[in-house]
Amino acid sequence: MSQVLQRTSATGTRATKVIGALAILVMVWVVVSGLILTPQDVVQGESVRIMYVHVPSAWIAYLAFIFTAVASASWLISKKHSMGFDRFAGASAEVGVMFMAITLITGSLWGRLTWGEFWQWDPRLTTTAFLFVTYVGYLAVRRLEGSAEQRARRSAVVAMLAVLEIPLVHFSVVLWRSLHQGATVLNPNGDVKMDDLMLFTLFSGVVAFTLVFVWLVLHRQRTMLLVDIANRQGLDAAIAARKTEGSVR
Amino acid sequence: MKDAGFILGSYFVTLGAILVFAFVTLRRAKESSQSVDEKDKTWL
Q1: Contact (CB<8Å) A233/B36
Q2: Whose CB among A46, A61, A238, B36 lies 3.0–4.6 Å from A100's, allowing a Cys bridge?
Q3: Can you tell me the distance from the alpha carbon of A20 to that of A71, in angstroms, rounded to the nearest whole number?
């Protein structure tokens, strides 16, 4: 069985295959419903269809960054300093950055249709761009020279600080005057004014992107483990070669 | 559909980014896997 899996994917298992298949199925539904089945919005017209990819990608990016912070804190707090926490934090941040980039691009396209411009230095847009750049910086910190433990410690501290930006981004539409609309689904009074199929498609988008997130993080953190093992084996081999060299002299 | 270019573009960007990320991830996994023993692949 393991050899069969090895041929198809180095980091795949039966679970990742099931998650991947479910992600594809739900994603197909989101595309069909989002582009064809759902009605137009009374105010925004057809452009509301961008919501079904824009909003879930933003939510999953937030979720990914929160997971990164939790895993980083777990690494710092745990006595064993398990590198699994660090790899999970790194994998989650990478996927989060991808979803944040999708959020910015799709938001820009939606903005062009509703505001007439691709970009405005609006509080929500500016803080979101700042969040994106911060996590690109986090990924850069992970690539700095040093041991795996040094990488984990540095990046954990950055992740703990970076996650504090998320409430700022989310509440920016409340704290400042913003062009960006306020929360429709996650509004404080819980009164959701949206067509049932639109709401269902939006939540389907969240489910699809969550499945994609899980699938990507599982593969990515396993790849990180493979790289760490290969690096350790390379270092061990170099040390052994040096010792042999010394004993010959 | 009005503004189809922008709407379809947003779906194309979303699905394209996910597919490229998934492809790169699987390729990296395959490359990294070659130098590691099977016993170290704890998920198998």
Answers
A1: yes
A2: A61
A3: 23
